[in-house]
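Internal tracking record. Fields below are filled automatically when a chain is submitted to the structure queue. Please do not edit lines marked as system-generated. If the sequence contains nonstandard residues, flag them in the REMARKS field before resubmitting.
Queue: standard
Priority: normal
Entity type: single polypeptide chain
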Amino acid sequence: MAEQTARLLLLTAAVGLAWGSQGDREPVYRDCVLRCEERNCSGDALKHFRSLQPIYMSLAGWTCRDDCKYECMWVTVGLYLQEGHRVPQFHGKVSLNAWFWSTVFHTRDTDLTEKMDYFCASAVILYSVYLCCVRTVGLRYPSVASAFGALLLLLLTVHISYLSLIRFDYGYNMMANVAIGLVNLAWWLAWCLRNHRHLPHTRRCVVVVLLLQGLSLLELLDFPPLFWVLDAHAIWHISTIPVHILFFRFLEDDSLYLLKESEAKFKLA
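SYSTEM-GENERATED OUTPUT FOLLOWS
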């Protein structure tokens, strides 16, 4: 069992390295991060960075390297836009990790792969709620988003601990995910309906959250496999692929809006 676990963990790391986001692999981005770290993340420069860092960022574990990666991400995005290219994705690993473990579990059903599939699915749902908090609240009140993220991490830890150490309850796991999914749905919809007039790209977000909630019925209303091949769970997995692509398009448009808004404020200042 230990040997199988080690192999799976190594394979996960290999997948992460091989399938990193396009933006992470850009030479411009990598060179920018390297130069930024050399300039700002050691000696007196690092002390200066820490002295100016807000307490909530420090408590959230935000490092000088993280700051460099964030700044260089926007530098790279700006260069892409100047050249007329589509904005690349950065740091896209959460959904990939969930899909990877889902693939492993459906290929080889063991106690470990089953747990990883379930736990990563829960993590993706909670991450979507956290992303909603960051977009709707965190831009104005970063400390609130950091505290809420810590709360969600605590909830995930308790959830995983209960299923791992006390009882692996399928019914409880399903209800917990459905409850969080409903919170995610209500929050995103409320924000989209409030901002749809000046943010037309929120229509994509509305379609995404409604589709995901509708498709989740496939997990609740099971039926015998079609042609003894495609059951409700398999159809659910297939159906979520285009939905995630649509959600990425929304995030892309929203990021471009925020970038333009930030540039406009900078010019006014």
